[in-house]
């Protein structure tokens, strides 16, 4: 993969949580294309295995699957063990796993609130802790990339208070952990996607009780606020993640890169 120059991830070991589908799959595909060995950690074992097999079949980097619940206390250790076993080291972590149920705060139950924080923020933080400890032990730096959201910067709709709070936390965790890990040559950055078209994008709306007409009208209004005039695709995020994972971004840490088609310009 020498033609990638400073963007090459040849001989790097990478892990992507929630890597079986959607944005996570797009990220895994790009990291493998750049030459990395990719561990796809996902609760859906079948989908993770299928994605890993398809990525490996394309050539470039190799991919393997790991069934994982990112809220488990041992999740970070499992990622470290699997990635180092398969690829010799863990050099890149992409914390992509997340949930986004749409429930107004006045109807929010404590259990659902805690679940959103556990997946989106606590799981991310403690997986990062375990992986960072291994990176420090390896002594050759590393890259941690957290998938945040524009909702961590500005709310997009009613019903995402728990999600928005978790993603705001991801952005601030990214900044603080970047300070802590900088002396070890480990860069910690985040990507804040805007509206990205994936199979799971409509799930919160489908469970909201809205009619198809109401959902279509909401999407029309959302699209009207995007200067580039389209929803994003998983690869729009994946290419930015691949950049942050590479040596081309060695002087960036603690940053949140917004990838939203210009939505926040409005």
What features would you describe in this structure?
The chain has 266 residues and is of the alpha/beta class. It has a single domain (10-200, 233-259), classed as Rossmann fold, CATH 3.40.50. Helices cover 44% and strands 14% of the residues. It has a 7-stranded parallel sheet, with helices on both faces. β2, α2 (45-58) and β3 form a beta-alpha-beta unit. α1 (22-33) packs across α8 (234-245) and α3 packs parallel to α4 (110-138). The radius of gyration is 18 Å and the shape is globular. The protein starts with 12 loop residues before the first strand and ends in a 7-residue tail after the last strand. 45% of the residues are buried.
Note the overall shape: globular
- The proportion of strand residues reads 5-15%
Distance between the termini: 40 Å
For the record, the CATH architecture stands as 3-Layer(aba) Sandwich
Q: Based on helices, strands and strand pairing, what is the structural class?
A: alpha/beta
Low-pLDDT runs: none
Task: Give a brief outline of the structure.
The chain has helices spanning about 20-35, 45-60, 75-85, 110-140, 160-180, 205, 210-225, 235-245, and strands at about 15, 35-40, 65, 90-95, 140-145, 185-195, 255-260. With about 270 residues, the protein is an alpha/beta fold. Helix 3 runs parallel beside helix 4 (about 110-140) and helix 4 (about 110-140) packs parallel to helix 5.
């Amino acid at each position: 993969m020498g033609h990638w120059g400073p963007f090459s991830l040849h001989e790097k070991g990478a892990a992507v949580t929630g890597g079986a589908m959607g944005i996570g799959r797009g990220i895994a595909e790009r990291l493998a294309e750049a030459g990395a060995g990719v561990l796809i950690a996902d609760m859906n074992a079948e989908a993770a295995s299928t994605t890993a097999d398809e990525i490996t079949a394309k050539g470039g980097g190799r991919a393997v699957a790991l069934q994982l619940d990112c809220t488990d206390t041992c999740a970070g250790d499992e990622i470290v063990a699997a990635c180092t076993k398969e690829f010799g080291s863990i050099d890149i972590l992409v914390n992509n796993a997340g949930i986004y149920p749409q429930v107004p705060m006045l109807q929010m139950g404590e259990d659902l609130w805690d679940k959103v924080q556990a997946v989106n923020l606590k799981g991310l933080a403690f997986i990062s802790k375990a992986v960072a400890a291994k990176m420090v032990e390896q002594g050759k730096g590393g890259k941690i990339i957290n998938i945040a959201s524009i909702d961590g910067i500005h709310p997009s709709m009613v019903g995402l208070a728990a999600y928005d709070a978790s993603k705001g936390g991801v952005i601030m965790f990214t900044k603080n952990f970047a300070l802590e890990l900088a002396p070890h040559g480990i860069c910690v950055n985040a990507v804040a996607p805007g509206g990205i078209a994936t199979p799971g994008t409509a799930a919160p709306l489908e469970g909201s009780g809205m009619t198809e007409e109401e959902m279509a009208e909401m999407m029309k209004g959302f699209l009207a606020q995007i200067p580039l005039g389209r929803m994003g695709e998983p690869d729009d995020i994946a290419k930015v993640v691949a950049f942050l994972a590479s040596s081309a971004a060695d002087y960036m840490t603690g940053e949140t890169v917004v990838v939203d088609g210009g939505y926040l310009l409005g």
